[in-house]
Amino acid sequence: MEIKRYNENPILTAADVPFKVNSIFNAGAIKFNGQYLLLCRIELPTGLSSLILARSEDGYHFTVDEKPILTPDIHGEFFEYANWGVEDARITEIDGVYYITYTGYSVNEPVVLLARTKNFKDFELLGPISEPVNKDAVIFPEKIDGYYWKIDRPAVSALQGDMWINRSPDLLHWGMHRRLIAARKPLWDGHKIGASTPPIKTEKGWLMLYHGVRMIGTSMIYRQGVLLLDAEKPFKVIGRSLHPILSPEEEYERMGDVPNVIFSTGWIPEPGGEIKIYYSGADSNVSLAITSVDYLLSQCNAGTETRS
Ligand code: BMA
Questions:
Q1: pTM score, whole prediction
Q2: From the CB of 17, is ligand 1 less than 6 Å away?
Q3: Which listed site, 161, 218, 229, 231, has its alpha carbon 20 to 30 Å from 304?
Q4: Residue 88 Cα, ligand 1 centroid: separation in angstroms?
Q5: pLDDT tens digits, residue range 28-50?
Q6: 261 C-alpha vs ligand 1 centroid, how far in Å?
Q7: Coil, strand or helix: which one is 105?
Q8: CATH number of the domain that 159 lies in?
Q9: Distance (Å, whole) CA 227 – CA 157
């Protein structure tokens, strides 16, 4: 199996939300109690974003909740880091607890916020786990070498957007920051990159998706790539895709609020090696592509060369 778009894409649009929104997109994904859950970003008519759950029995047909579950105004002492909206959730399960990394947007620019839940009803908001400017954070699903690990994307300067990896004894205090991979100028992922999906464990190492951005004139094209990291030392890169595995081609990926964007924040591995990739086209919908772990591993065919 290579990679295939679901023929009924997009699976969610603004019309599926039971109240007025500008758009629904960038969904974290997890299986919980046998159900497929998507924690989607909705952009409200004000222009600010919140996070809402959509639920499905089969992974293809989703029903969006009546109201958002993570909004800026529930952030209490952390409100000043979220009052321009909360965006782009990624979900990782560790020992029956679901950790959600998401972007808090404010006058402070983006920071990574952390929340946790056991039931997707009650959320404990743990606040910022980065300084600004940082986003695109994913947490590994188990401890490695006695630590929790996270990948994120500090914006070192306006000209540089690379993926970094760091570790923590408790998921709150993070250190040992190292650059994991750099944007690969002049390729498709040459302008900036960021983690897309939380890593999953395979027999070859940690497998994850990342997004790569290329500037063309004044516009940007977002594509998806794959990365394979060492099982014991996740800061060591084993392979990276030379070509993107998903590029904007369909109308629902090319046309929308931000044209020419494929942006994934969640995937669900199935028994037997299939994997469902939830992604958004043009910042305007939730769509689905189906592939296999084997295919993604086969794409980690390039070395780790970075900018010259
Ligand atoms: C990124 C984030 C995402 C968005 C993407 C494409 O920087 O802001 O939320 O989907 O750009 O516009």
A1: 0.97
A2: no
A3: 218
A4: 8
A5: 999 999 999 999 999 999 999 99
A6: 8
A7: coil
A8: 2.115.10.20
A9: 23
**Domain presence at residue 306:** no
Ligand 1 atom closest to 87 (CA): 9
Per DSSP, helices labelled H in the chain are 251-254, 293-299
Q: Report the distance separating Cα 60 and Cα 290, nearest Å.
A: 11
- pLDDT tens-digit map of 3-37: 999 999 999 999 999 999 999 999 999 999 999 99
Number of independent structural domains in the chain: 1
- Confirm whether 293 is domain-assigned: yes
Cα–Cα distance for residue pair 291/288, rounded to 1 Å: 10
* CA nearest to 277, candidates 164, 197, 182, 190: 197
In the predicted structure, residue 305 carries a pLDDT above the cut 60 = no
Q: What is the pLDDT of residues 80-109, one digit of tens each?
A: 999 999 999 999 999 999 999 999 999 999
Cβ of residue 162 lying under 6 Å from some atom of ligand 1: no
State whether the beta carbon of 262 lies less than 6 angstroms from ligand 1. Answer: no
- pLDDT for the residue 1: 82
For a mutational test of ligand 1's pocket, the pick from 88, 211, 215, 279, i.e. the residue with the most ligand atoms closer than 8 A to its C-beta, is 88
Q: Is residue 307 part of a domain?
A: no
- Bridge partners of 117, per DSSP, are 98, 123
- 253 ligand 1 Cβ < 6 A: no
Q: Does 26 contact ligand 1 (Cβ within 6 A)?
A: yes
Q: Is 264 close to ligand 1, i.e. is its CB under 6 Å away?
A: no
Neighbouring C-beta atoms of residue 267, cutoff 10 Å: 25
Question: Is the CB of residue 36 below 6 angstroms from any atom belonging to ligand 1?
Answer: no
